[in-house]
Amino acid sequence: MKKEKSYNRGNQRRPGPGAGFHGPIGMPGEKPKNFKRTTSRLIHYLGPHLPMIIFMVLFSIVATLLGVISPDYLRRIINALQNVMTGNADNYSLDEVQRIFIILIGLFLIRFILDVFAALMGNHVSNTVAKKMRNQLRDKLELLPIKYFDETKTGNILSVFSNDVEAVSNSLQQSLIYILTGFLQVIGVLFMMFRISWQLTMIALIALPLYILSTTYIAKTSQKKFKKQQAQLGNLNGYIEEIFTAHKVVKLFGMENESFEEFQTINSSLANESRGAQFISGLIRPIMEFISNLGYVAVVVVGGILTGATNPLLIGDITIFVTYQKSFVNPILNIASLINTLQSTIAGAERVFDLLDQPEELKEQNIDEIELNGFEGNVHFENVEFSYNEEQKLIENLNLNVLAGKQIAIVGPTGAGKTTLVNLLMRFYEIKNGMITIDGVKYTDVPRKSLRRLFGMVLQDTWLFSGSIKDNVAFGKEDATIEEIKEACRQAHVDHFIETLPEGYETILNEDASNLSQGQKQLLTIARAILFNPKILILDEATSSVDTRTESYIQNAMNFMMEDRTSFVIAHRLSTIKNASLILVMNNGSIVEQGNHKELLDKKGVYYDLYNSQFVNPLT
């Protein structure tokens, strides 16, 4: 048998089928961990809008009450017309019918206006709350340490910004108001039903336990089915994401049929689970309609009998009573649905607050902005210790002295601590012990924002945004002139390519710059670093994504840019760093060898082995 796979990473929350009347009842509600505390925090967001919320609630309450009493005027019209037609018009006339009709139209108009104003105010409050939350989240991301982004999936952060904030802003105030007005509607309708006939009301209430028992049983049964459906949906999404991002590999090995068969297996499992969940959830409406029809029949039969009683019921009484009976059950079911939705909303709010409560970077105390022009780029590490966790130390007792204008290459196996070293230098992480200074100034005495303006960085993974080439190159130096941008591109050997484009420097890049090759993207990021003109340059495998000829162009540009500038070059391709002033060989967080290219080869140590491993003919 083929081993069953699980693709849970594609499992995302989706609205239930038939959302609205019975969908939320059939879907498993996501329960918050601390409902009371989270709700209390949400109320603070609504506090500034309290006057508007009060008016919105009042308008909704009045509109609900008007909706309850409006059918009674319609009952009076029908009864008046019946009496007029039968000649029993002692208390009714066509003038009376006309007066009641005008009142009824007025009630409808007032209710319409109140509903519109309540909706507008609710929309304003929800959008304002969403805007405030997103602003706070955006500001929070600026204060979070790099460690948080390394440990948190990007999709989770995006989900908080989109799904959770949207759910909170749209659902919270609506759910609270609809629950309130739903209770008022139930009480008001029940009062009007008793006012028409207590006998018919008692008959109608007999069906209520049947509603509750049937919907509760179906909800519990369907929840299990929907959980299985969501699990299978996650498997399908994960499989599609995995197989189609690797479609070239699938075609290369001729695995189209096998992948299609596996897709069919997962798809069939999802279809089977969905069929059962949809069927059980779909039973709610027909069962409720069946119970309702039995209740309507009972009301009509008993009402017909009561028409011959001492105080007979008229046609309008029975007709409007059935109308009230229909509108009595729906609010109860909607309240149950909204409570379930409200739980999911509060759970979403918990995720928002969880992000907002994440520990921030260590706050800087009374540090003023400094003038960067005075820095030359002398870097000193003294007894530096660092670890990502307490159980496993990465860097211990690291000592390093780098003179301004020197090119420092850092080599070593994966996990040796190469990238960690430069991350510490830019205070992306805080050291545990020791001290790092730049030109004799402790780097903790320099504001992070000022400190990082000393550095220019080119990474192996290119980052370009959707916008013009000009704006991408000028990112970080918004006051750059077009001539400065062009000069930076010339030094990066990318100007010729840009000039061949129809729009030149105004060419718009697609999302992820998918309309450029990997090498072209890397050249643009190098041009960006050249334009920024930093005091200290960091190159992390900057030429790994380009061909040999392009690499030579970039290397010439890098050599030009690294003149009289302190540079840290992380490299796996050792041929690119032979001319470095100093080569650091790192392993397990420590510098095990250092020297220039010739000195390290003469030692015939770790660097010698690394260098030889990259060439066919070993050195003699």
Topology:
Blueprint: H1 23-26, H2 35-46, H3 50-86, H4 94-143, H5 146-151, H6 154-196, H7 198-245, H8 247-252, H9 256-282, H10 284-306, H11 315-356, E1 379-386, E2 395-402, E3 407-411, H12 418-425, E4 433-438, E5 441-442, H13 448-452, E6 455-458, H14 469-473, H15 482-491, H16 495-499, H17 518-532, E7 536-540, H18 548-561, E8 566-570, E9 582-587, E10 590-595, H19 597-603, H20 606-613
Parallel strand pairs: 3-8, 3-9, 6-7, 7-8
Antiparallel strand pairs: 1-2, 1-4, 4-5, 9-10
Number of helices: 20
Distance between the termini: 55 Å
Largest sheet: 6 strands, mixed
Mean of all residue-level pLDDT scores: 78
| Shape field | elongated
Summarize the amount of helix as a percent range: 55-70%
Helix/strand-derived class? alpha/beta
- Which CATH architecture of the domain at 18-356 is right? Up-down Bundle
**Poorly predicted spans:** 1-28
Strand order of the largest sheet: 6-7-8-3-9-10
Walk me through the structure.
With about 625 residues, the protein is α/β, with parallel strands linked by helices. It has a domain at about 20-355: ABC transporter transmembrane region fold (Up-down Bundle). Helices cover about 60% and strands about 10% of the residues. The protein has 20 helices and ten strands. The strands form two sheets. The chain has a six-stranded mixed β-sheet with strand order 6-7-8-3-9-10, with helices on both faces. Strands 2-1-4-5 form a four-stranded antiparallel β-sheet, with no helix packed on it. A hairpin with a 2-residue loop joins strand 4 and strand 5 (about 440). The longest helix is centred in the N-terminal third of the chain and has 50 residues, at about 95-145.
